């Protein structure tokens, strides 16, 4: 399949627990584009993101990344991807600073501290993540985006638990990523039409 898109989903069929969550689903994401996965509870938003991330497999269909068919081996895509799922990938028994170090061992302590300041986490650097509020823990997870140099962001309800300020910061972060040619696919119930004009709609 030829396409100028960075990520192409072609004719995807995902089934879970005996139910078809989508069938014949196709869309393409070009550099600098964000797409939003829409649908009510249980319609398959998380399942779609997991399939694209390579955590689970579709029944049928193909996934192309940078023109390469990655359906059976998602590693070329995974090397370029940040996937933030419901569980957020934070290490709750580690401190905030230890989590940031774990995300990005190649970054200097000063860079990590600057990200912590941007996200309002600086006072909590020495706190165990499990002692933080849900929104603060979400901010720790989102630090991965602030530190990331990866092109493709797959974000499962990234605005969940964030306050208004956190939501605005995340929108700005996404906008900056798009401006630098990144790709974003996220599920959200938030209205983000200004930065995310493209929707994938999953029906019950
Ligand atoms: N591993 C699994 N085995 C069986 N059924 C599953 C599995 N994973 C998901 N499902 C089912 O697939 C459907 C879609 O689940 P999914 O989590 O993808 O929905 P969602 O749109 O993300 O929901 P929500 O908005 O509530 O987070 C649900 O009915 C769920 O029970």
Automatic annotation (TrEMBL):
The alphabetized UniProt keywords are: ATP-binding, Cytochrome c-type biogenesis, Membrane, Nucleotide-binding, Translocase, Transport
In the record, biological process GO terms are: cytochrome complex assembly
Occurrences of domain ABC transporter (ranges): 7-204
Q: Which Gene3D superfamilies match?
A: P-loop containing nucleotide triphosphate hydrolases (3.40.50.300)
Q: PROSITE patterns attached here?
A: ABC_TRANSPORTER_1, ABC_TRANSPORTER_2
What residues form the membrane-spanning segments? none
Q: Which GO terms describe its molecular function?
A: ATP binding; ATP hydrolysis activity; transmembrane transporter activity
What's the name of the protein?
Cytochrome c biogenesis heme-transporting ATPase CcmA
Q: What is the lineage of its organism?
A: Bacteria, Pseudomonadati, Pseudomonadota, Gammaproteobacteria, Oceanospirillales
């Amino acid at each position: 399949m030829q396409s100028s898109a960075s990520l192409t989903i072609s004719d995807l069929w995902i089934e879970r627990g005996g139910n078809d969550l989508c069938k014949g689903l196709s869309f393409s994401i070009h550099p600098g584009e964000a797409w939003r996965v829409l649908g009510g509870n249980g319609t398959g938003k998380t399942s779609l993101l997991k399939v694209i991330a390579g955590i689970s497999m579709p029944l049928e269909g193909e996934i192309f990344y940078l023109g390469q068919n990655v359906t059976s081996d998602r590693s070329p895509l995974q090397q370029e991807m940040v996937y933030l799922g419901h569980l957020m990938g934070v290490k709750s028994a580690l401190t905030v600073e230890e989590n940031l170090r774990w995300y990005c061992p190649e970054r200097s302590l000063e860079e990590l501290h600057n990200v912590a300041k941007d996200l309002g986490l600086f006072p909590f650097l020495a706190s165990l993540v499990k002692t933080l509020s849900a929104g603060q823990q979400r901010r720790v997870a989102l630090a991965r985006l602030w530190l990331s140099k990866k092109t493709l962001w797959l974000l499962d309800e990234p605005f969940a638990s964030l306050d208004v300020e956190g939501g605005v910061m995340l929108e700005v972060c996404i906008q900056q990523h798009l401006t630098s040619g990144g790709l974003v696919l996220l599920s959200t119930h938030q209205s983000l039409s200004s930065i995310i004009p493209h929707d994938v709609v999953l029906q019950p």
